[in-house]
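Quick question, first post here. What does this chain look like in 3D?
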Amino acid sequence: MRLASSSWPLFASVPISRLALAALLGDDKLGGILMKTELATRSVGPLAGESGARRGRVLIVDDEPLLVASLSRLLRLEHDVSSVSDGEGAIALLDKDAGFDLILCDLRMPGMSGVDLYQRLRATNPTLASRMVFVTGAMLSADMQHFVGANIGVEFLEKPFEPKVLRALVRRFVAASDLPAAVA
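> Answer (accepted):
Ran it through. Tokens below.
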């Protein structure tokens, strides 16, 4: 596995033990995920509220804890972020609280995949399904290509990506949402 250099985009491959150590020690100079995330949180410009934009609510559905932690850290200054580790957890949460501006969802997870979650939401809550964006780092299989072709309008965010791309995407979904402002 290669160590991420500081010039790589966010979410490049980093050995877990080195990343975990860096997170525990608060060392943002080890490169890769932590450094890029820290740089991004320092240079976001006006935060929600400062620019007149409201804080959004983002749900992250992913089975990779380090990715969830990085995404949460990147977004939490501007938005309220919740996370679950699988599709079943997402369904349980969304049954109780469907007030999310955006759902960032991994395509491939054990149990209920991101596609399964999307199809379930599309059948039960089309508005929520329209707020989903899939995060993927893998080449799309024939099944995934068919899914994309059959579901025009489903957005994808391919890893690796720059923090500013993620922030712009989230801001766009929050601005387009008809949800009331989140309570601070």
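The chain has two domains: 1-43, 53-176.
Confidence is low (pLDDT under 50) at residues 1-46.
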